């Protein structure tokens, strides 16, 4: 017998087994994703409850979970959106625009709120202004101006957070605390931007960055009563969200703990 001849039945059986294995893996991945998301959501709720029970609590009454979905496929985002996850954060612009375009065409998940949380280059502002609901990384007046000028007619104002370099680290982007007043004055003059608050990524060794940022956030709220939408303090990730929530965070950004390691 020629060993190179293949029995068609055996080949079909092998294909069926392979398809079954892929289906089982897909089902397992789906269950793991939902389990991760439910666990993180429960951790956020628990952190809120713990913070509210502390004397002189500084915690917010509501904390938004931002699911950071960079490098993850649109199918995973859609899965969570159908379960009730509303806010998703993206770092890589072209990848994000592709996912946004795909998912906005699906009426089941078209209500997703998209946050841009990556660095902003001047030549990228138009795509950000045209596709996102929030931008959390504004740090310069020229970027704010371009986002305002390029926000399309008919769209709601673009929600903006100022990225604050609270620890004055050379390796990190962000507006310095001493520069905040000028940047606030610039942004609040733009009709197509809605200034909502601050975002920080503190140094790991800084134990009071959250408390200092909340104090600054509150000071701005008192100094600028005209900022009627000043309500968002985006700070805290997987490893430090409990501490961030205890210090007034209204939004935590979580990626790996929900979606698994980056692809």
What key phrases describe this protein's structure?
9 helices, 263 residues, eight-stranded parallel β-sheet, alpha/beta
Structure characterization notes:
The protein is of the alpha/beta class and 263 residues long. 44% of the residues lie in helices and 15% in strands. It has nine helices and eight strands. The N and C termini lie far apart (46 Å).
Radius of gyration: 22 Å
Could you tell me the strand content as a percent range?
A: 15-25%
Number of helices: 9
Q: What string gives the helices and strands in order?
A: HEHEHEHEHEHEHEHEH
- Uncertain stretches: none
User: Termini separation (Å)?
Assistant: 46 Å
> What is the tally of beta strands?
8
What profile does the largest beta sheet have?
A: 8 strands, parallel
Name the overall outline: globular
Helix content: 40-55%
Mean pLDDT: 90
Widest sheet, order of strands: 7-6-5-4-3-2-1-8
Q: Structural class of the secondary structure composition?
A: alpha/beta
